[in-house]
Specification:
The structure holds two protein chains of two kinds. Helix content of chain A is 30%, strand content 30%. Chain A is an alpha/beta fold. Chain A has two domains: 137 residues, Rossmann fold (3-Layer(aba) Sandwich); 73 residues, no CATH class. In chain A, the strands form three sheets. In chain A, strands 6-8-9-3-10-11 form a six-stranded mixed β-sheet, with helices on both faces. A four-stranded antiparallel β-sheet of chain A has the order 2-1-4-5, with helices on one face. Chain B is mainly α. In chain B, helix 3 packs antiparallel against helix 10. The chains are: A alpha/beta, B mainly alpha. At the A-B interface, helix 2, strand 6, strand 7 and helix 5 of A face helix 9 and strand 1 of B.
Chain lengths: 264, 334
């Protein structure tokens, strides 16, 4: 029986008083799976990530990671357990792939004059191998294509060697081949000691790659469970306000979208 | 591997070249001026036997040269740190009004308590932090855009320089120190100034050595640094304080000079890249060279009249500043 990677209890959050994002949100995210979070724009997906990565603080309630309140972890300790790839990134124009990936070892460095150990080098090398970046390791990140760049940021998060990996729409602006490359890579390196939580825009990709889905609407969980068990036409209509038809293709479900709603 | 070797080689050559340039400038600055003197005579006067002419040079010219070198190094490193902290290529202690804030407080203290001259770097620091705080507060809106920083900086700079120039007008005559600060005139610097500057420079350089390896994180987005377990707000605070301290020490001893802290970091970044463990020391070396150059040129170009080093820096720096307004940022976003 897996424990919970995250447990949210009666979480309330708002950016300002007029727009409440979460009101008494309860949510458990089991460890060991690839979990997709789906929902329309403004449903609270990205905000949820900001709370889980301690970028924003909740107003009330508790969030636990590995059964301990996340506010009790020191930043450094937390970043040895949870890593994240953001949708937008910034880096100096002249930084190389290898140097950027090695930032992933930051949480493990100690002392006034930090330096990389042999173990650090090995993990950096492995992260670059896993993301197929070895041939590019001396290149500047700013000279790479969008898909390659996202792999570099993913490699940095992998070098952090955490059990929980959060991916925030990291494929959104890539073309379809690079989207699938990244999703395949994530699927391949996943095992049941790890938890990967992804925010995806593409419903079919979510169905294909995620073991479990969490569907959000207006800050509330509408449905949560094994992908194949919960996905159906009425749920998608409820969450996204769209008409769909779900068909089976080679044992996976596929979602077809209707262009207009009936009567419109 | 080959590429790495060439890169290492390149930075060694750069350091060597710049050091040679600085040494040449020092030699030229030592022998040139009101008293023209040969190197042999200088050597004998310094180490062999007393020579009245050499003694004048030792008391007048040497402190000036050392002040220019140390101050140039401090101001340039201050520029590097501010540009990193604000993630902004146009950050400069002069343009941002930090120098003016420091000068304002220093001028007040010098006018009221002339005996406190040795502590001016500390009071200048208070003034610098006030100006920095105002600029940060007014320009901050989920990050600071380069243009907004410059515009707010111009405003803050105008207020403080109006204030210290006003005070100077009230007190003109009695306090030549004040007038010298405003013109950034270092012709009257003596060994006392060198001692004060050395003490503060030593403290600041130790602090820079401690923070240099961590400054690279300032160039990543806040969300990324936080997920690497770094307290970015604390770090930004510490680096800002050190940057303002360096600019304030400069202002307290030398005066207000714009563009030095802007131009040097950019040249250095083009030459050695944006990694701070390389960028900071090279900026210090290049800044020392350029500021000594500006001071020596200002001293010699229209001899016996002196042109202030701040005017020469304006001539060199302002065109580069205009060019930088057009150039793309050194940080990419995707």
């Amino acid at each position: 029986m897996n424990h919970n990677a995250f447990t949210l209890k009666r979480v309330c959050f708002e950016y300002d008083e007029s727009t409440q994002i979460f009101k008494h949100l309860d949510l458990s995210i089991q460890s060991g799976k690839i979990i997709g979070i789906l929902g329309e724009n403004g449903c609270g997906k990205s905000t949820l990530f900001k709370l889980l990565t301690k970028q924003e603080e909740i107003k009330s309630g508790t969030i636990e990671m590995n059964e301990q309140d996340i506010t009790l972890y020191k930043n450094k300790e937390y970043s040895k357990m949870v890593s994240v790839v953001h949708q937008y990134n910034q880096a100096p124009r002249d930084i190389t792939v290898k140097d950027l990936v090695s930032y992933g070892r930051t949480p493990y460095q100690k002392g006034l004059f930090p330096s990389l150990s042999q173990e650090d080098y090995n993990l950096i090398e492995t992260a670059m191998e896993d993301t197929d970046l070895i041939d590019l390791k001396d290149k500047r990140v700013s000279e790479l294509s969008g898909g390659q760049r996202q792999r570099v940021w993913l490699a940095m998060a992998l070098a952090q060697n955490t059990n929980i990996l959060l991916l925030d729409e990291m494929t959104t602006y890539l073309d379809i081949k690079h989207q699938l490359d990244i999703l395949n890579l994530i699927k391949e390196r996943h095992d049941d000691t790890k938890t990967t939580i992804v925010i995806l825009h593409d419903i079919n990709q979510a169905i294909e790659y995620c073991d479990e889905l969490i569907l959000l609407k207006k800050g509330q969980v509408v449905a949560q469970g094994k992908t194949n068990e919960i996905i159906n036409e009425s749920l998608l209509e409820e969450v996204f306000d769209i008409q769909t038809k779900i068909i089976d293709v080679e044992e996976t479900k596929m979602c077809l979208f209707r262009r207009t709603r009936e009567g419109v | 591997m080959m590429l790495n070797n060439i890169k290492k080689y390149k930075s060694v050559i750069l350091y060597l070249f710049t050091t040679l340039l600085l040494c040449g400038l020092i030699l030229y600055a030592m022998k040139s001026g009101g008293i023209e003197i040969g190197f042999k005579e200088l050597w004998n006067g310094l180490f062999v036997e007393y020579d009245a002419r050499v003694d004048v040079i030792f008391e007048m010219r040497f402190p000036r040269i050392i002040v220019a070198i140390l101050a140039g190094a401090l101001m340039s490193m201050s520029g590097v740190l501010l540009q990193a902290v604000m993630r902004n290529p146009l950050a400069d202690p002069g343009i941002m009004g930090i120098n003016a804030g420091s000068a304002f407080v220093t001028v007040i203290v010098l006018a009221l308590f002339p005996t406190l001259a040795g502590f001016t770097p500390i009071v200048a620091f208070v003034g610098g932090m006030i100006a920095f705080g105002i600029v940060y507060f007014l320009a901050y809106d989920k990050g600071i855009s380069p243009m907004k920083l410059v515009l707010v900086g111009v405003g803050v700079e105008a207020i403080f320089s109006a204030l210290y120039k006003g005070i100077d007008a009230f007190t003109r005559g009695g306090y030549s120190n004040v007038a010298n600060l405003i013109d950034a005139n270092i012709s009257l610097k003596d060994w006392n100034d060198v001692t004060v500057l050395c003490i503060y420079a030593l403290i600041v350089i130790l602090l820079v050595i401690l923070i240099a390896p961590r400054c690279d994180y300032l160039l990543l987005s806040d969300a990324t640094t936080r997920s690497l377990g770094i307290d970015i707000h604390k770090m930004r605070m510490i680096v800002s304080i050190i940057a303002v301290l360096m600019a304030s020490v400069f202002t307290a001893i030398v005066g207000t000079v714009s563009f030095l802290g802007l131009v040097v970091p950019h040249l250095a970044r083009i030459l050695v890249g944006s990694q701070h463990k390389r960028l900071l020391p090279y900026s210090a070396l290049l800044g020392a060279t350029i500021f000594l150059f500006a001071d020596t040129v200002g001293r010699m170009i229209a001899y016996p009249y002196e042109i202030s080093s701040s005017i020469i820096m304006g001539l060199i720096g302002a065109p580069l500043f205009l060019y930088l307004l057009k150039r793309k940022s050194d940080i990419y976003e995707s």
